[in-house]
Fold:
Amino acid sequence: MKAVILSAGLGTRFRSEKPKVLHTILGKPMLWYVLQAVKSSGIQEIGVVISYMGELVEKALEGEQVMFYHQKNPKGGTADALLSSADMWRSYDGYVLVINGDAPLVSAQTLRNMQRFLHMVEEYEKEKLSGAILTGFLPDPTGYGRVVKDSNGNVIKVIEEKDANFEEKKINEVNGGVYIFYAPHLIECAFFIKPNEKTGELYLTDVFKVMYERGYKVRTFMAEDAVEVMGVNTRWDMAVAENVIRLRILQHWANMGNTLHQPESIWIEPDVSLEGDVEVHPNVSLKGKTKVGKGSIIGKGCVVENSILGQAVVLEPYSIVRDSIIEDGACIGPFAHIRNQSRVGQNSHIGNFVEVKKSLVGRDVKAKHLAYIGDAHIGENTNIGAGVVFANFDGKKKYETYVGSNAFVGSNSLLIAPLKVGNFAYIAGGSVVNKDVPDGDLAISRPQLRLLKGKGEEKLK
Structure:
């Protein structure tokens, strides 16, 4: 089977300058979800019809094994869009899946079931259908195209609401925008579609009336979940679709043995993975290609993006980890910020209001309070006191600081890079260090303290 994804529409109701299918749902373009469903259904030969700002769509799907077809007239309608890809299927003696690029809620399982349905009809009824339409029954079908059938269940036509009469508007079986056509019958009938009297567009849904008149049979296939037939025509539709997909992802990870507190507030994107026994608290966002190890705990309000958390990692509330690795047993936060390819070693503790930028922190390191660690390499079992600053920037260039193992950096010290601090070195609190400290040495740099008798009380009066 082949597939064509229609992604050439202008999306005028979105009121956007970029193609509608590129608007993101959980960090991925809407079109990405459609493509993944098609690929996961087992279809390998996939065409994507593009038009308005098509180069952006091509860039968004860079690396995907798809073929692009350009619709010359973006206002030509859905049938014109499909015919733009005719070179792909005009001589094909098989079925073609046609799906809208703004249908992110359709699942791969539903597409597989539609394929099985066609084969079962052919095997058991000895009938080769010309097509199948994904439909759903909605209590309120307002705004959707209605599916009109004869007494034998064959599709007579699909009619848009604005063109439907009173009786047709009573039908609550609606068109889901997903079709499978027998290619020889499709190419034959598509050229008999007439432009719409009001818009001048060629509607793909008009092909069903042509097929019925020519004696070809099309049946409906009901979606297991009616939400799958919901297209995304407005920004509010997209917000609803995003919530559905978000809850599907959360349900999957809960079923895989992870605890999600107040799931209505949790954001987990499609490429995230949880290894099991992970505990996620409210208002957490897990983004990009993030991997969370077994038994880790992610506290309230944390953000983790494109990062790896090892096993039994604890992120205290409102901590941020981006593009970094946190090894097994480490504790981060609360209110910590780890970023720019940093790595925090096993059992280390990066505490409240500590920022780590592009640094390698060894195992069993403690930096528990109010510190900035930038462009640094810190050995194992070293202590970084409160208020310590790694001064890594001279206004033009970034420099690195190396701190050995089992060292001690006292509170409120300033380490001016480039700098090397040896193993077992001790930097006294409040020191400004601008030259290397050898192994085992003590560095102390403080101005002389003067005591002026009685002057303190005088100042306070």
About this structure: Residues 74 and 223 are 29 Å apart (CA to CA). The mean pLDDT is 94. The first strand starts at residue 2 and ends at 6.
